[in-house]
Task: inverse folding
């Protein structure tokens, strides 16, 4: 019932509409695009180093003759997967920790929030930068875990403060007075009532994680070769941006479009799910 | 529709055929007309959603963008609708002052009260900063704020609700307006504070000679204050006339029903008469008369066209009902027209109290909180003595009402009972089980017998759950049986509270307030409890809906043999529903006893003041009665007065000698029975016993 | 108040200590300063390397806990240790902190002041063309990561300079050491232009969104209506009552914004060739410089906590409700 109302509201929201359209197109490009291109991302064209966009190499080639179109789309796939996984893990963590801290209060609250504070104070960038390249057999999944571990704290504080007010709400009191245990109340009453916030947050986290991945990879601390991501491509391209701008512009442009479309969806969701929030 | 203006002074404010339509075609106000003379009080009465507040905002020109206003509003004969914004700005605050409902949100939180009043002065008068500040202090003094020079430097959050509303009045009259529009000015306040604020309003009117438009849902407030009344329903005026005409000879079925549905202190034993159904949504008005679906006098012709206001008899009396003349001729009233729902007959079982089982016994209950200050820089600055040693008990089949104003500790008491945890001090014994000695399983078991109905029917039901799941939750938690048994019980419960079993599929937001409260009651009944705690169960509901819920609670009690602990601030409802009553003041019980004893013979000065502060929906009585006005606000529960907690505001203290008064300051009075055999105790050194009681007719 | 501040100080010092220690252990166990000496031509004898590393408290043959104790006792007396090639961290840091703070300070001021102004303007003009333009620009800017933005700015500056035939916009370093006096001052300002844009554009977008939303929340509230009911024009009511009040919730985002600023500064410094703390963070990891990494962590942790504290102070200054009377 409610979800139907939300969906109609979302469909009427032009921001969300454009955002969704753009995201669908980008996803299609990332996952269907490689089959349309003439080259595979591992192919190396030894006859064309650093050639500008042409009929054969749509987006040009790199200095070792890779097809920029194929490589960029490959990197985009990785960036998208990392973004969604990180968002999922970090929002889940935020919901769990925040709701537990807010609902149980006392030392549970103190301990969890202290932990969150510590993670906020730790320079996340530095820690990920040190650990991530050294994870041997370096699956990028570890990188996902690291990014997620450092991105849930602020949301968990918001969740906590909302839980504090939900805890005083009468339907939660009613459940307590029925003798329903705390964790069940969290799962059944608290988290569902925070779902708007969590959905919005997860969306924003996707774009945050995509940027975070790219930022770390930019300095060589993120995704490690032979894997490529938008971040590693941008880093490689930015060194030669003045002479060979296509190396930089295509991955950077896709990154911006990707993040923009997701942010638009997030903002549209906020309007649709939480109409009181800013209208 | 045109009222004659000849032969009398021209009105200061004249509204003609005012219509307001919001975006999406929602017609919030449809054809409102009224006139206001100098020094006159016009009451606009209606339930939530009747369009009464929108009307006043339209007059001020303060509706949000996107609202379409048509019709005419004339101030001193000058048209305001369609006037230039600069001209309106010049008039606002100067010729028309406005007082809003919630004074906390109506003041800007980051400026001091004095600055905000001075700002109002400086907008319209060419005076210096100092002079405006001095004028602000004068105004604060006028509305009865103690130490106005100091308080002017305080921020809104540092004022109590009543003081804030006084300051609001001071701001509204800063420029001597000709018209004061008061939008539910006392709704957020306690009764004794309400009485004070209404007095201030009268003072303000005397000082300024302004005409007042008083918008309220409380028929009691209007009865004592207004000269004429306009009743609104579904965005339309349905009846208008002098206050006596409306209250004693209503000629429109909705007005008749509204007056009949109010629980009255002076007629406690009568069965309340609810108006069935709900007001129509402004987005989906029925064809014809919008009240027809709920009207007991409905005939076929009612659905043909919406009736307009028509004159009845001589004078300014008008009513919007095709049968008004008939009602007038036959002299019908609400009690005869509306079907009186039959009460469930009480079983003959009426054993004396002492022989019945005690379902709840509270003895010397104490609950103190640390007082924290500051949101960012939090620190403990003291102790709140929220509940400070109270005792009472409830016998099987009995309703005990716990009454008192906000901050008296009644909600804390209730939470202490519901939590079933060992209290800080004293004991709570539910059905013979001491809450301090319960283990986990015992506590859970006891919860079956002890249930609660909350005040706010919006907040009490999880908006993400369908009603069926909400009702099934307690059943599942206590292992009621398999899915089929649970479903059957849910259907049974819904029927019991007057809803249909198919309602189980819907979500709470698809129900009206009254229906939601019924769902809350059904949930409380799910496990067949013996004692139900009712936390202000009807105070969030409109009067016409309230009556139905009160009747339901009465019936359920008799049918299921329930006992109620009823927490409320509305003394009229309490009188109607309760057998015994305990009056609380600052964490202590001031007076306790049977309803007849306490209401008929109030012995504590606080009880007397409380009773006398309740506005009665009866203009004649309101005009003749004298109020006992309490001074000042409730002291902070973090710093209660020594000795008797009520002594700082006690009207009786002035009559006491010095030695007698010293006793009040030094010794804390305990609850003492007035007569050895009677069920009436009072915590006062000098209880009243013989004099005629406060409220006339009570 | 005093007790509260003390409590907060103690817990903050504790947080900083733990954060810095964790960073130290991490760096000391996973970075390898020895590598900086081993691959040299001519090869350096292992004993010499050991002795050098020992001298700088970087020798991985010493148990890590022992090195940690040495480091902590140094930090406690105000000595942050030596870089991998034996320079004093303290000296290096005092130079770099100034560079970073200059960027951070300008970025914060420019970002918040312009951002709040733009956001408030957009809120007042809700749904009009200007609001939409501001909204779309903010979204686009927030979707552009700092390193992309900074690279683009360089590209633009190079383009402009090439077309003009002289250097209008400086895009590397902090100043030109060849100049002196007034010329050097303007040169410094010139060098500040691009990094400031790259750093504050995101901040402006962020603050403008926050301020717009907060302001819209406030616009619908009763007190704005009251202000108009007493005869204030719409404009005055908005600026005097709505804007002032909506600054309070917006200020709570200060700490968060500062966090992103800190990360942004890393990229800005690196791309525009400023030798600040952010650039050092990246360089020190690449050069396996354990003590430098620890020092940068310490600095970042202190920054975050100070920003949090500042944020609370600003809120307290703006909002009488949270002040302790």
Result:
């Amino acid at each position: 019932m409610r979800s139907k109302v939300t969906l109609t509201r979302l469909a009427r929201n032009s921001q969300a509409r454009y955002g969704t359209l753009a995201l669908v197109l980008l996803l299609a490009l990332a996952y269907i695009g490689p089959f349309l291109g003439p080259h595979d991302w591992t192919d190396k064209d030894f006859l064309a180093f650093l050639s500008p966009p042409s009929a054969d190499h749509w987006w040009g080639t790199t200095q070792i003759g890779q097809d920029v179109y194929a490589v960029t789309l490959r990197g985009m796939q990785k960036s998208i997967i990392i973004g969604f996984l990180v968002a999922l893990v970090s929002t889940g963590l935020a919901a769990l920790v925040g709701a537990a801290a807010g609902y149980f209060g006392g030392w549970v609250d103190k301990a969890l929030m202290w932990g969150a504070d510590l993670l906020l104070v730790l320079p996340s960038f530095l820690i990920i930068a040190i650990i991530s390249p050294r994870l041997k057999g370096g699956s990028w999944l570890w990188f996902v875990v690291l990014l997620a571990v450092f991105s849930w704290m602020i949301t968990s504080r918001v969740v906590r403060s909302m839980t504090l007010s939900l805890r005083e709400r009468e339907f939660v009191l009613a459940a307590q007075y029925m003798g329903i245990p705390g964790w069940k109340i969290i799962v059944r009453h608290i988290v569902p009532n925070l779902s708007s916030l969590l959905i919005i947050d997860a969306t924003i986290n996707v774009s945050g994680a995509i940027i975070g991945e790219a930022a770390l990879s930019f300095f060589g601390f993120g995704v490690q070769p032979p894997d490529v991501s938008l971040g590693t491509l941008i880093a490689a391209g930015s060194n030669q941006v003045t002479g060979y701008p296509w190396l930089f512009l295509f991955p950077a442009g896709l990154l911006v479009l990707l993040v923009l479309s997701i942010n638009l969806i997030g903002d549209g969701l906020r309007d649709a799910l939480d109409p009181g929030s800013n209208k | 529709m045109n009222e004659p203006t000849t032969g009398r002074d021209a009105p200061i404010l004249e509204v003609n055929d005012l219509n307001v339509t919001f975006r999406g075609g929602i017609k919030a106000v449809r054809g409102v007309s009224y006139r206001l003379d100098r020094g006159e009080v016009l009451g606009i009465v209606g339930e939530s959603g009747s369009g009464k507040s929108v009307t006043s905002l339209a007059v001020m020109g303060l509706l949000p963008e996107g609202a379409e206003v048509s019709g005419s509003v004339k101030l001193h004969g000058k048209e305001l609708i369609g006037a230039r914004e600069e001209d309106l700005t010049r008039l606002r605050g100067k010729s028309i002052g406005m007082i809003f409902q919630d004074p906390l949100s109506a003041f800007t939180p980051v400026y001091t009260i004095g600055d905000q009043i001075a700002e109002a002065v400086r907008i319209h008068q060419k005076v210096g900063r100092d002079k405006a500040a001095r004028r602000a202090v004068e105004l604060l003094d006028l509305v009865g704020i103690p130490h106005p020079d100091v308080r002017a430097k305080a921020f809104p959050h540092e004022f109590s609700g009543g003081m804030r509303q006084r300051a609001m009045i001071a701001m509204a009259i800063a420029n001597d307006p000709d018209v004061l529009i008061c939008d539910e000015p006392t709704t957020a306040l306690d009764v004794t504070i309400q009485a004070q604020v209404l007095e201030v309003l009268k003072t303000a009117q005397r000082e300024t000679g302004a005409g007042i438009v008083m918008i309220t849902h409380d028929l009691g407030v209007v009865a004592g204050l207004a000269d004429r009344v306009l009743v609104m329903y579904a965005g339309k005026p349905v009846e208008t006339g002098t206050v006596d005409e409306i209250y004693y000879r209503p000629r429109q079925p909705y007005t008749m029903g509204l007056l009949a549905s109010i629980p009255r202190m002076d007629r406690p034993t009568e069965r309340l008469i609810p108006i069935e159904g709900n007001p129509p949504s402004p987005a989906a008005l029925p064809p014809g008369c919008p009240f027809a679906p709920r009207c007991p006098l409905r005939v076929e012709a009612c659905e043909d066209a919406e009736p307009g206001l028509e004159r009845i008899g001589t004078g300014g009396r008008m009513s919007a009902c095709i049968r008004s003349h008939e009602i007038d001729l036959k002299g019908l009233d609400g009690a005869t027209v509306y079907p009186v729902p039959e009460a469930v007959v009480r079983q003959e079982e009426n054993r004396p109290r002492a022989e019945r089982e005690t379902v709840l016994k509270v003895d010397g209950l104490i609950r103190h909180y640390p007082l924290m200050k500051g949101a960012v820089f939090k620190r403990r600055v003291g102790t709140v003595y929220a509940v400070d040693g109270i005792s009472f008990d409830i016998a099987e089949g009995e309703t005990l009402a716990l009454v008192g104003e906000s901050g008296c500790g009644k909600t804390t008491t209730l939470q202490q009972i519901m939590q079933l945890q060992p209290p800080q001090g004293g004991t709570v014994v539910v059905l013979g089980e001491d809450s301090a000695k319960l283990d986990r399983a015992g506590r859970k078991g006891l919860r079956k017998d002890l249930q609660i109905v909350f005040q706010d029917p919006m907040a009490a039901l999880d908006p993400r759950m369908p009603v069926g799941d909400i009702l099934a939750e307690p059943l599942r938690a206590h292992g009621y049986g398999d899915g089929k048994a649970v479903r059957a019980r849910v259907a049974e419960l819904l029927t019991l509270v007057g809803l249909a079993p198919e309602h189980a599929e819907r979500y709470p937001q698809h129900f009206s307030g009254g229906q939601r409260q019924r769902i809350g009651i059904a949930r409380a009944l799910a496990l067949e409890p013996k004692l139900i705690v009712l936390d202000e169960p009807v105070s969030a509901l409109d009067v016409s809906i309230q009556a139905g819920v009160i009747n339901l609670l009465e019936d359920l009690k008799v049918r299921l043999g329930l006992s109620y602990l009823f927490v409320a601030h509305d003394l009229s409802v309490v009188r109607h529903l309760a057998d015994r009553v305990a009056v609380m003041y600052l964490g202590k019980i001031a007076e306790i006893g049977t309803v007849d004893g306490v209401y008929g013979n109030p012995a504590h000065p606080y009880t007397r003041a409380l009773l006398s502060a309740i506005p009665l929906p009866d203009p004649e009585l309101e005009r003749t009665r004298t109020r006992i006005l309490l001074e000042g606000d409730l002291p902070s529960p973090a710093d209660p007065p020594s000795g008797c907690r009520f002594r700082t505001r006690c009207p009786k203290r002035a009559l006491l000698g010095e030695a007698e008064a010293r006793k009040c300051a030094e010794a804390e009075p305990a609850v003492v029975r007035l007569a050895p055999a009677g069920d009436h105790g009072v915590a006062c050194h000098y209880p009243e016993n013989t004099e005629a009681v406060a409220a006339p007719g009570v | 108040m005093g007790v509260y501040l003390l409590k907060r100080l103690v817990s903050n010092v504790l947080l900083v200590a733990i954060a810095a220690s964790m960073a130290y252990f991490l760096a000391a166990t996973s970075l390898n300063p020895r590598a900086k000496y081993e691959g040299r031509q001519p090869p350096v004898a292992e004993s010499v390397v050991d002795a050098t590393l020992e001298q700088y408290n970087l020798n991985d043959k010493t148990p890590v806990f022992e090195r940690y104790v040495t480091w902590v006792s140094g930090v406690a007396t105000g000595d942050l240790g030596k870089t991998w090639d034996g320079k004093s961290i303290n000296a290096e840091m005092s130079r770099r902190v100034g560079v970073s703070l200059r960027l951070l300070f300008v970025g914060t001021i420019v970002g918040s002041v312009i951002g709040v102004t733009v956001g408030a303007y957009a809120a007042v003009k809700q749904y009009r063309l200007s609001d939409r333009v501001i909204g779309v620009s903010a979204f686009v800017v927030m979707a552009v990561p700092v390193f992309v933005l900074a690279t683009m700015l360089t590209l633009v500056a190079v383009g402009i300079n090439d077309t003009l035939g002289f250097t209008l916009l400086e895009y590397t370093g902090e100043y030109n050491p060849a100049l002196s006096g007034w010329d050097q001052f303007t040169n410094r300002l010139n060098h500040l232009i691009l990094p400031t844009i790259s750093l504050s554009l995101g901040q402006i977008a962020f603050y403008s969104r926050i301020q717009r939303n907060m302001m819209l929340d406030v616009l619908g509230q009763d007190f704005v209506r009251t202000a108009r009911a007493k005869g204030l024009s719409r404009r005055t009511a908005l600026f005097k009552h709505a804007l002032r009040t909506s600054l309070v919730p917006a200020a709570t985002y200060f700490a968060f914004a500062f966090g992103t600023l800190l990360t942004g500064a890393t990229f800005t410094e690196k791309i525009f060739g400023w030798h600040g703390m952010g650039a050092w963070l990246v360089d020190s990891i690449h050069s396996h410089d354990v003590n430098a990494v620890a020092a940068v962590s310490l600095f970042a942790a202190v920054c975050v906590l100070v920003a949090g504290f500042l944020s609370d102070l600003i809120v307290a200054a703006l909002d009488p409700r949270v002040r302790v009377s």
About this structure: Chain A has one domain: 2-273. Chain A touches chain C at residues 117-118, 120-123, 125-127, 129-131, 134, 154, 207, 211, 214-215, 218-219, 221, 234, 238, 241-242, 245, 248, 252, 255-257, 259-260, 263-264, 267, 277-279 (CB under 8 Å). Chain A has twelve helices and no strands. The two ends of chain A are 22 Å apart (CA to CA).
